[in-house]
Amino acid sequence: MNRDLLDISDGLLSGRLSVDDHHPVSIGAQSQGLDLGDGLLFIESFANVTALHEDGELALVDAGGVIHARQIHEIVRTHTSAPLRRAVYTHGHIDHCFGVPLFEAEDGAPGVEVISHEAVAKRFDRYQLTNGYNGTINQRQFRLAAALFPSDFRYPDTTFRESTAFSLGATDLELNHDKGETDDHTWVWMPQRRVLCTGDLIMWVAPNCGNPQKVQRYPLEWAAALRKMAELEPEILLPGHGLPIVGTESVATVLGDTAELLESITSQTLEMMNAGETLDSIIHSVEVPGGLLDRPWMQPIYDDPEFIVHNVWRLYGGWFDGNPARLKPAPESALAAELASLCGGSPRLAERALELAGDGELRLAGHLAELAAQADPDGPEVHAARAEVNRARVAAETSLMAKGIFGWAEHVSTGIASRDDGPDGGDRR
Asked: For residue 291, what are the contacts with CB-CB under 8 A and spacing of at least 6?
């Protein structure tokens, strides 16, 4: 057994290592395999894959994404030449479901049965409708060179609603549906091996339950699923991202801590909603239980717990945030122009934004920098300030999602600030 990944996992769980030593969601990382014995192979990639081969047949739990699918296929084929019979999609995110055609294209390979929850097909249909938007999200979030998003999906052959199962040799694979990061999520239990494949219900980061650019997440259902998994007393947890976790006690701790964070944020948010508080008040009041975000498997380096509050509000309260001015608002550019005229022009807004950023008031600085740019959308001076403020915001944030959005704003404004002339060709310097 290759111990390298397990040694790193143990080091992170014990505190000997930090996530800086092994980031769980690095899109540029090379895929690498870990032989867990008896035909069980774990492949760590941007999105992980679990392969099981028994009695001359192969099954996959997840199949890799657009970028890493070929690497994953090559790793599997260094361990077994068994034909792929079944592939389980834990959900329909594009980093989990693009490797099957590589196996199907092999000479003599029989048809592969792809199994998923019934909502995966609906997700793929939705991706077709929102292809351009999803490309923009990925460009912004991961700083990709172009707004690209796939449009050709390998749809499931067999779907289920609550649970289903199949066997490979002497191993049963029990598929269970629970909402969580997505509405189409499946987690897989191998009872004979005491192995749990969680998909993205565990990612070695604070749960991705608030992503500001994506559709609804389900925190309480997610927490309930984790509690159900813990009751099974797994000995090995193979997550959707990050490293394997070995040992009943360690697995139970990770599952329980993640559930506690989701339950606490949800209960605090609902309590304040029921008391009539606005979203603004709730965002700045909810706190994560002490110590949870210090856990190596709960770092807010992908999503941000503050974003989960937004998601809970959206789930239970709709889109109106309690501020009547935002129910039917004026165009943002009109509001920005009015405020700029009141304070002496957009350069003054930009100047004050830089002053606030220098004092560490980055949230307020962000508002003023945005207003300045909206009041003068082609102004190099105000965009230089906007770029500087957002650059500071990137440096101050821990979550990839916040860094991506602020970084993209910096990128756009840097481009405008570097122009020598305005849209009419006149000198703007």
From this structure: none
CA distance 324 to 320: 8
Domains and CATH numbers, the chain: 4-262 (3.60.15.30), 330-417 (1.25.40.880)
Contact 406, 394 (CB under 8 A): yes
Q: What is the pTM of this model?
A: 0.94
Phi, psi of 418 (to 5 degrees): -85, -5
Residues 6+ positions from 29 with CB-CB distance below 8 Å: 23, 44, 45, 46
Q: Are strands 40-44 and 163-168 parallel, antiparallel or unpaired?
A: unpaired
Which has the closest alpha carbon to 316: 283, 270, 278?
270
Give mean pLDDT in consecutive 10-residue pieces for the chain, a chain of 429 residues. 82 90 79 94 96 97 94 96 96 96 82 96 97 92 79 96 98 98 98 98 97 97 98 98 97 98 98 98 96 94 97 97 97 98 97 98 98 97 98 97 96 90 39
What is the structure's pLDDT at 425? Answer: 38
Phi, psi of 118 (to 5 degrees): -65, -25
**Count of CB atoms within 10 A of residue 46's CB?**
22
Q: What CA–CA distance (Å, rounded) separates 409 from 407? A: 5
Pairing mode, strands 171-177 and 186-190: antiparallel
CB-hemisphere CA count at 13 Å for 223?
A: 14
Exposed, middle or buried: residue 150 (CB in 10 Å: 0-12, 13-18, 19+)?
Answer: middle
Query: What is residue 424's predicted lDDT score, i.e. its pLDDT?
Result: 41
